[in-house]
Amino acid sequence: MAKIIRIYPENPQENLINEVIKTLNNGGLIIYPSDTVYALGCNIFDIKAMEKLAQIKKQKLDKAQFSIICNDLSHLSDFTRPVDTSVFRFLKSHLPGPFTFILEASKGLPLAYKNHKTIGIRVPDHPIPQLIVEKLGHPIASTSIKDDDEIIEYSTDPELIAEKYDHLVDIVIDSGYGDNIASTIVDLTSGEPEVIRQGKGII
């Protein structure tokens, strides 16, 4: 059964964040809030956790397109090919924020991302995922939580989310109601921004 932990962005308790970190380091899966929708996350360096994440999404791991959640742009060079100055400035002017930026992947990607030519990078404007990544010491893999409802595309109520994913994840972070608009996906592989999916972020 998933453990529900109430962590609020105004005053995230360090001991609760540490519990989340311990779970991630032990190969657990978490559900966490962001500046857009609630999302599933795990340790990008734990291949078994990544496989579980893919199973939940009913995907094969080598085909899955999981974003990498960072707390700032310092991890960029670990996972992406070098970007030119104009692209870096563009990223810096929009992050943290409700965007997923597609960039050319480097060979330094974790095993689960092997053979990926591109990678989606997110820096949410939300203290909880930022704090998790900062304390973990490296980014996490992430995918949005979709709703079965045809009208409401994304689940917003953490209690209903916990009920649905009770036996699939280890921790659900309840941070109050989430948004129901996903991030805007922007392809930067050509050097020029191309909006692939319009979401919450405005370019």
UniProtKB/TrEMBL annotation:
InterPro entries according to UniProt: DHBP_synth_RibB-like_a/b_dom, Sua5-like_dom, SUA5_domain
Q: What class of enzyme is it?
A: transferase
Enzyme Commission numbers on file:
2.7.7.87
Q: Name one Pfam family in it.
A: Sua5_yciO_yrdC
Gene3D superfamilies, per database record: DHBP synthase (3.90.870.10)
Q: A single GO molecular function, which one? A: L-threonylcarbamoyladenylate synthase
Q: Which UniProt keywords apply?
A: Nucleotidyltransferase, Transferase
Where does the YrdC-like domain lie? Answer: 14-201
Q: Which NCBIfam families match?
A: L-threonylcarbamoyladenylate synthase (TIGR00057)
Q: What is this protein called?
A: L-threonylcarbamoyladenylate synthase
Lineage here is: Bacteria, Pseudomonadati, Bacteroidota, Flavobacteriia, Flavobacteriales
